[in-house]
Amino acid sequence: MHGSTAAPLVRVTVEDGIARVMLDRPARHNSLVPALMDALNEALADLRRSDLTALVLAGAGRSFSTGGDVAAFAAVPRGERRAYAQTLVGGLNRAILALLDMPCPVIACVHGPVTGGSLGLVLAADLVAMAEGAFVAPYYVEVGFAPDGGWTAMLPARIGEAQARAIQLLNRHVTAAEAVALGIATVACPPEAIDSVVDGWTAALQAKAGTAVRATRALLMPPERRAAIAAGLEREREHFLRLIDEEAVEAGMRWFLDRSSRP
Q1: Where are the transmembrane segments (predicted)?
Q2: Which CATH number fits domain 10-194+204-261: 3.30.200.20, 3.30.479.10, 3.30.365.10, 3.90.226.10?
Q3: CB 207 within 8 A of CB 195
């Protein structure tokens, strides 16, 4: 797999035991569509069979990922959106669980915004480097979608229920510094330093006892915790499907797309 391209929307390279997985849909801010999720899940399945020291997940362009592609949702006829959403959110849930199941540590390199369900890809990482200027935001109460990507299944356990409620109900933007304080990110750094931070982590992991690193990661995600997360993600998917054809979602998507199209 060294130097290979796993799929059109995801680039994968492996060198010296370090896998680098790049979401590669920069013109759409790496927003999530079924084809991207299929490519990511295929890449993660291949990488799980490899003997890796670490997996680094990043995004091309200005954003890490802005969650589900609202324009793609809006382009699907209203009566067909449930099937589309089932495919997309189901694929996202599989990717989150696949990252949690990786034997090696997962590092998220967050150089730009993380919105909507793409937060789950960050929450599944062991170490998160976040560039100053990047932020995390939900947008669900604005657009009308039900939360997905672990906003309810994973975030409250990470940062506390009160903070998770306030961020989501008020659609608060979480800065890189606040993400570190809350425990979403490991470190905030200048954008030009983020690659050096990640490279420092991968070098440190290469110097550790691999068997102990893998055992530590496995013990930090015992079967009962993994099962609880999987159940929470499934609840999110069910609620997402319930709301997808509601008029509030139709209006919310129009508002979001109109806002996004302004200069």
Answers
A1: none
A2: 3.90.226.10
A3: no
